[in-house]
UniProtKB/TrEMBL annotation:
InterPro entries per UniProt: AKR, K_chnl_volt-dep_bsu_KCNAB-rel, NAD(P)_OxRdtase_dom_sf, NADP_OxRdtase_dom
Organism encoding this protein: Microbacterium terricola
Keyword NADP tagged: yes
Entries under PANTHER family matching the protein: HYPERKINETIC, ISOFORM M (PTHR43150:SF2)
Protein name: Aldo/keto reductase
Keywords, ordered alphabetically: NADP, Oxidoreductase
Length: 333
């Protein structure tokens, strides 16, 4: 397992981060979740990402239980706040000082740790002044409850504004967590250049495009039983943007490239995002330990420039590149 610096900081994280969105506390039983976390540890993954809203706080509990007994100094544990948790009261969501101060304490309790390595704003909050949010983050860092600050799905302008306040407050603002894959490249034109300038890395989610880049979905065929595309609890909705025959047909053209590199389609997808030097880590989830073992093989893979160009040619115009799509990822409260 290779490690990379997170932003311009001295913190190193594993190129593959284990995340538990849509799995722990909901789709995967606790015993299976425990096995997946232990498989990640055995594979050399040191970085684990969660959020308080995953399974309405249950995912943090499961992850904390799975990591109990591990040497805390050898791990990088990340979590996030913004989305509603609890009984959905008026202050149970957002990036207000009240919600963040209460959220960090709840996350630490559920995770069974005194601090998180990275505390992230899960989305941009249109209803709270940015200065209020960043001062709260600064107080959380100075209290020792978080070591670094990050965000998720912020636009280039939002990153620039947040970084300016972080610099003024002298707190380490080091990361953004966007969706990014060979099919979803909306961060490349604006977010990545600004992030490089500001010393911010990307920790990318959905590098296999909700499973579409594994090649298991074929044009003109029904989705496999039990796959995410058949999940009525949100999975099918998330993957729907890619479930078009023109996209699926283009994805199948990647198979010879994966074969040439001696990779599975999933490994090709994960290694593709890691070719971007602004990406510090690719987030993977798993419902079985075998999925962890497969995906970690993407760490350290170098895809030659000519094959990167062939991937572009194979996918053609089905790739989404519009940077305005980032705004759609942040709900208006």
């Amino acid at each position: 397992m290779k490690h990379r610096h997170l932003g311009a900081s001295g913190l190193k994280i594993s190129e593959i981060t284990y995340g538990n969105w849509l799995t722990h506390g909901s789709q995967v039983e606790n015993e299976a979740a425990m096995a997946c976390v232990h498989a990640a540890l055995d594979a050399g993954i040191t970085t684990f990402d969660t959020a308080d809203m995953y399974a309405n706080t249950k995912a943090e509990v499961v992850l904390g239980d799975a990591l109990r007994g591990q040497r805390r100094e050898s791990l990088e544990i990340f979590t996030k706040a913004y989305y509603p948790v609890g009984p959905l009261g008026p202050n149970d969501s957002g990036l207000s000082r009240k919600h963040l101060m209460e959220s960090i304490d709840g996350s630490l309790r559920r995770l069974g740790t005194d601090y998180v390595d990275l505390y992230q704003a899960h989305r941009w909050d249109n209803a709270t002044p940015l200065e209020e949010t960043m001062v709260a983050f600064a107080d959380i860092v100075r209290s020792g409850k978080a070591l670094y600050i990050g965000v998720s799905e912020w636009t280039a302008d939002q990153l620039r504004a947040g970084a300016a306040l972080a610099k003024e407050l002298r707190i380490p603002f080091v990361s953004n967590q966007p969706q990014y894959s060979a099919l979803w490249r909306i961060i490349e034109s604006d977010v990545v250049p600004v992030s490089r300038e500001l010393g911010i890395s990307q920790i990318v989610w959905s590098p296999v495009a909700q499973g579409v880049l594994t090649g298991k979905y074929r044009p003109g065929h029904a989705a496999p039983a039990g796959s995410r595309a058949t999940d009525g609890n949100g999975g099918a909705e998330m993957i729907s943007r890619f479930m078009r025959d023109d996209v699926l047909e283009r994805v199948q053209r990647l198979r010879p490239i994966a074969d040439e590199l001696g990779l599975s389609m999933a490994q090709l997808a994960v290694s593709w995002v890691l070719q971007n030097d602004n990406v510090a880590s690719a987030l993977i989830g798993a419902s079985r330990p075998e999925q962890v073992h497969e995906n970690v093989r993407a760490s350290g893979v170098i895809i030659p420039p000519e094959l990167m160009s062939r991937i572009d040619d194979c996918l053609g115009d089905v790739v989404e590149r519009d940077p305005a799509k980032t705004v759609e990822e942040s709900p208006v409260r």
